[in-house]
Design goal:
By secondary structure, this protein is α/β, with parallel strands linked by helices. The chain has helices at 12-19, 23-30, 38-50, 57-66, 81-95, 110-122, 138-145, 167-181, 196-211, 228-238, 253-266, 282-285, 299-314; strands at 70-75, 100-105, 128-130, 149-152, 162-165, 186-190, 221-223, 247-250, 275-280, 293-296, 323-326, 329-331. Strands 2-1-3-4-5-11 form a six-stranded parallel sheet, sandwiched between helices.
């Protein structure tokens, strides 16, 4: 009879040592979790099969019963696809590992954000995914610097891993699309440059204008907090007066919802009276008449990358300041066309 303490066959620890990863990463890969990079998961499973790995079901049952952690998901708003779609998909992906996700909504209020972070720390959250508020407080930064944190959409400069949309390139392409149609008076409704993604978007717009030989200083622009109400008010302000622009680019999911509704309420026709480019999820923008030209953001991909980064961070398999960029695409539809000839 073999000695009671003797291990038989290949174990999770052996596989983890072979690939220089944590045992948790190996377990996730063997269980088919989507939070492990596909190529790494495939190599781990192939190695386990080749070396005759057999899981210890008793140990796995005890582990799953005793180590179910939870993580936080801290966002400013929940009424836009940029946050609601990503939150839902992240919760689903993390739950495959038995990790529960607690959603908190700051309303872009730095004081409320600080309170929620303190509560998450007091509740022993293993880590969190956060889209920081515009005026994040120093106390909140200190909390985040001592947690396993993944930044989403926005960065507050704490040197944490993050997942962001590569908006600069696609917005320059949007401006080029309009200038090639003949537009020279292009207005922009976007998020403040104090926000990291607001600065990136602004740079994309100005890149496109310079590419066309236009002066960014002459562009009509309004930078506001990304809410539906601000989208409506922004359109009213930018299109007021007799010399209104011939094209409008709106960058921000909630801003786009409000702006599209406001343009329709004015009775203006796209693209005859105004060429319109919006931002976000084209699934319902396609229902407009005509369908709206859209900067299409791959929200499911954002969620996969954010969940994968957080689990990798908790496993010690992700380096600090690791950044993932997803590539949005410009989906051209019927709301953009040549400018109308004006007297």
């Amino acid at each position: 009879m073999a000695a009671r303490g003797r291990r038989s066959g290949l174990g999770v620890v052996d596989i983890a040592r072979e690939f220089s990863v944590s045992t948790a990463t190996v377990s996730r890969a063997l269980n088919g979790s989507h939070t492990v990079r596909p190529e790494l998961a495939q190599r781990i499973r192939a190695y386990a099969a080749e070396h005759g790995y057999v899981p210890n079901r008793l140990a796995r049952g005890l582990s799953s019963a005793s180590s179910r952690a939870f993580v936080g998901f801290v966002i400013p708003y929940v009424d836009t696809p940029a946050y609601s779609a990503v939150a839902a998909e992240c919760a689903r992906l993390l739950s495959t590992d038995g990790t529960q996700m607690i959603l908190t909504i700051t309303g872009n209020d730095p004081q409320r954000e600080l309170q929620q972070l303190r509560e998450l720390v007091a509740s022993r959250a293993a880590g969190l995914i956060i889209s920081p508020s515009t005026g994040i407080l120093p106390e909140s930064r200190k909390i985040l610097e001592n947690l396993a944190v993944v930044e989403l959409h926005r960065s507050c400069g704490i040197g944490a891993p993050g997942v962001f949309s590569d908006d600069r390139r696609v917005l320059a392409d949007a401006v080029t699309h309009l200038t090639e149609l003949g537009h020279r008076d292009i207005a922009y409704l976007g998020t403040p440059r104090e926000l990291s993604h607001g600065a990136v978007r602004w740079n994309g717009i100005t890149d496109g204008l310079r590419r066309a030989g236009l002066d960014p200083e002459q562009m009509r622009a309004l930078l506001v907090e990304p809410t539906t109400a601000n989208g409506r008010r922004g359109v009213e302000e930018l299109l007021a007066g007799p010399g209104r622009p011939t094209a409008l680019i709106v960058c921000g999911g909630a801003l786009s919802v409000g702006a599209a509704a406001a343009v329709r309420a004015t009775g203006m026709r796209t693209p005859d009276d105004l060429s319109l480019v919006v931002y976000g999820d084209p699934s319902w923008y396609a229902l407009a008449d005509p369908p709206l030209t859209t900067v299409q953001v791959p929200y499911p991909q954002l969620a996969v990358q954010a969940a994968r980064l957080l689990t990798g961070l908790l496993d010690g398999a992700v380096e600090p300041e690791h950044v993932e960029l997803v590539r949005p695409e410009l989906e051209i539809a019927g709301s953009t066309g040549p400018p109308a000839v004006r007297p």
